[in-house]
Amino acid sequence: MLLLSGKNSIYNNLKNMIQTVVTPEKADFDMAVSLPAEYVGKEVHVLFYIDEEVKKTTASILPQKKPSDFFGTLSLEDGEKMQAHITQSRNEWERNS
To answer: Is pTM, for the whole model, over 0.70?
Structure first.
């Protein structure tokens, strides 16, 4: 199980989200779940969906982006700062290797 939380999570509006993936071998199966204490006594949503169907649906809805679609997203100054940081990081990495 994966606990998704924190500032950088795409689920940052949710305090905690638990996700796990199962592959059932028959239509009827039992699944034991251990929940955090703060989940006890609260309504918890359980979803079952086929991963391949979600990927197909998402791929058909979202347009395919080309690198040129992102042209001008960063200012020239920000791009130069990022490039300088990357160069410095690579130099440090090579020095420490």
So the answer is: no
